[in-house]
Amino acid sequence: MDFSDVTDRPRRAVLAAAGVALTGVVTGCSDGSGSDASGGSSESDGSSDSGDGDAASPSGGSADGELTPTETPTASLEPSDVPTRWRTVEGEGFTIGVPGSFREDTEKASNGTTMYLFDAPGASGKASDPARVAVVRDVKPTAGVMPLSQVLVESKAVENEKPPVRSQLTWPGVEKPAVLVQWMSPIRGGHGGTQETWQLMVQVDPDLIINVLAVAPEGTLEKKKLAQVMSTFKVV
After folding, report:
1. Residues of the chain with confidence (pLDDT) below 50
2. Does the predicted TM-score (pTM) go above 0.85?
3. Closest CA to 138 of 28, 39, 7, 43
């Protein structure tokens, strides 16, 4: 599922339904047909793939081995402990560390799941002012992280001049490898500039993928400690 734009407004009227359907705060959601504009998944009715990673990709791949990332991350992301003086936020099935200066908010999706939002100091939460980490639960995904992340990469490759980078990570608390997708895109809102997005996709079990996203103006994602916040994500 593509939760790539976590910086759209209004903050309140955000979620429509496509798995963890997100309109407003997260765009690229479904029209109800079972997949979003980027090929992501929606809540399953039981007739779709099981989420075990064996679903076919648009390119014809049918097994994780054919879809395994080989790229090196543009910047590394390593699991880490929560730094001293940061607060630990407990979400549904996960924890994450956040600096005290970050603003915290949640939004409810129509399927009952909660999206967790963490804005860096000074960020407004608007599309023209991105500096945010979001944690989004994809319930009953139509496929596993390997094919879904490949679909995400293919959609972003069409939209952007610079090709996305998709890399495989070992993440604590889960058996299957996680996937990190990193890409650049224009900042929305008509103010120009480029934003950087990192999307970490962690397969908890066949019925749940947790997505952790960071979005910030190009060159500032790590400076604003968004990558460090992502690194503290843990499945519990």
Report:
1. 9-65
2. no
3. 43
